[in-house]
Amino acid sequence: MSSHTQRxxxxxxxxxxxxxxxAFARKFARSGYSVVVARRDAGKSEDLTNKLAAxxxxxxxxxxxxxxxxxxxxxxxxxxxxxxxxxxxxxxxGSNSPFPFIETDPVIFRKIWxxxxxxxxxxxxxxxxxxxxxxxxxxLVTGASASLRGKAGFGAFASAKHGLRALAQSLARxxxxxxxxxxxxxIDAGVDMPAIHERRRKKFGxxxxxxxxxxxxxxxxxxxxxxxxxxxxxxxTHELDLRPYGENW
Length: 249
What we know:
Largest sheet: 7 strands, parallel
Strand order of the largest sheet: 3-2-1-4-5-6-9
Oligomer: single chain
């Protein structure tokens, strides 16, 4: 990591895949932030890193297991020492793979919970520990429809997302008065990504519906994140739900 970007505000994304995480990186890098993204395999962000570098923006990718307390702590230390003070943190990790309830292996259940909920706790704890003494900063948490309601086949994921939402609520009430903004953003729809299109084709066929009006675009989510970060302290949003116009409520 370079030490030449310390004058810029720093944004860190944990769980930065090719959808929302990548869109967050593009938006904040192009808005003047030094951006660091962490995912299981940093090599998968090489194309994004090169593209933003060609535009003159700073993006660095690191490999990380978001379930490991030592790796999370070391990541925050490294970014703050080598890049600068972290002003924005996004927790975006999770696995929404469906499993019938009776057939859900306890090991699988635990892994889903560890990634989506425990990983969120670790990330928010490290962010809060650094932001509270400075009296500023924003912690963004990606929620889902499963944050609000369970669905057949998604018991493990829904339990983790319910827990993550509760963590964000509790943290907001604890550190909001200390100047740190905590936001839980509910993506109450599918996200416009190749994996979602493939899943929908397998379930419904090739021409069942116009997907343009029922999927949220990652760049639109990133735009919402950026707007939330810029809110004045007298009118903070804690929870915001996003859904496309064609989504069935």
